[in-house]
Design a protein that fits this description.
Layout (H helix, E strand, L loop, with lengths): L1 H29 L2 H9 L6 H11 L15 H4 L2 H5 L17 H36 L4 H15 L2 H15 L14 H32 L2 H8 L4 H12 L1 H8 L3 H6 L2 H6 L5 H11 L2 H29 L2 H4 L1
Helix pairs in contact: 1-16, 2-3, 6-9, 7-9, 8-9, 12-16, 15-16
Length: 325
């Protein structure tokens, strides 16, 4: 198991290095620091002196990979690649183009994103699996038919619709929940109820239908018929055999959600004015603050690779044969 884990971590680290290198080239070669300066200074008729001053204030006036003007090891370390790319591996994200400390902002905003995304992920996964198992147990009945139709209806409605309806009904009409905002004190739960509920409803239809399809595929296999022939009840077969054998595709579908647990939901955080990492990235894109965007791309890539490694571990725990492979 240790060799299996180390091999996966090594693969993930190589992929992250490649992503980091490509991102650096896109931001500093395709879109040069001179272009960034012109965008931030807000005009085409900008003097070369103003561009050089803006680059010097933010450390963008150095070479990309090799500094001929430095001496010794500084020829490699005093470069844009080391200062704005390699330091991210030590979780040192430097300062944004507006002068703010990116690491401090990330630590501050990670809490609201986790408070929103973690309950949505855990509760949503539990509800969707439970509903899918119920529809599978009552397959071919009216309950299964109407449940599947409800899933299709939920899948067909945009999350924006649930956001607007929730804000209008619960905030404008009933006035039981705040329409937007966030407090880090004891009353934070009041600001999270509606965003969590909207996120759950928006993803419930697709996840339930996907899990139901997996369970129906498993329930028609030979081992299920064998278990029933041995006298096991339908409930025990469903929860003891079908659920376990369907865990691998369920785990796979959950990998894409893991970065959102830390980076937040772009749409929900923006509409409900939650100061999380999702809204942080949206604000950075709107302000064209490329330092923040680079940092968030690195964090998102690292979290996704971490999710893949965790998925491999879950595979090995769910099916020991994978460790042998």
């Amino acid at each position: 198991m240790t060799h299996f884990l180390l091999r996966r971590i090594g693969y993930g680290l190589l992929v992250l290095i490649g992503i980091n290198l490509v991102t650096f080239l896109l931001f500093f070669k395709v879109n040069s620091p001179d272009d960034m300066a012109r965008i931030q200074l807000g005009g085409k008729r900008i003097t070369p002196e103003a561009i050089e001053k803006w680059k010097a204030e933010r450390g963008y006036d150095r070479p990309l990979f090799w500094n001929d003007q430095a001496k010794g090891s500084a020829q490699l370390t005093d470069t844009l690649f080391v200062d704005h790319s390699l330091r991210m591996f030590a979780l040192d994200f430097g300062r944004s183009d507006s002068g703010r400390d990116i690491s401090s902002d990330i630590r501050t905003r990670a809490g609201p994103s986790l408070a929103l995304a973690l309950p949505t992920f855990v509760v949503g996964l539990g509800i969707s699996i439970t509903l899918a198992l119920g529809l599978t147990f009552f397959r071919g009945t009216q309950l299964d038919l109407w449940g599947s139709m409800a899933c299709v209806v939920l899948m067909s409605i945009s999350a924006l619709f649930f956001i607007v309806v929730g804000q209008f009904a619960l905030s404008r009409v009933l006035q039981v929940l705040p329409i937007s905002g966030f407090e880090s004190e004891d009353g934070a739960w009041r600001f999270l109820i509606m965003p969590i509920a909207v996120s759950l409803i928006a993803r419930l239809g697709g996840e339930t239908r996907f899990n139901r399809t997996l369970f129906l595929e498993e329930i028609g296999k030979d081992y299920v018929r064998t278990a029933r022939a041995k006298g096991l009840s339908d409930v025990r077969v469903l929860f003891g055999h079908v659920l376990r054998n369907a865990l691998i595709p369920i785990i796979t579908s959950s990998v894409a959600v893991i970065p959102l647990l830390f980076m937040g939901s772009l749409i929900v955080e923006s509409f409900f004015a939650i100061p999380g990492l999702g809204s942080y990235l949206i604000d950075a894109i709107a302000a064209q603050d490329f330092a923040i965007v680079r940092s968030m791309v690195f964090i998102g890539s690292a979290l996704y690779i971490l999710g893949l490694i965790l998925t491999e571990i879950c595979y090995a725990l769910a099916d020991p044969r994978i460790r042998l492979i």
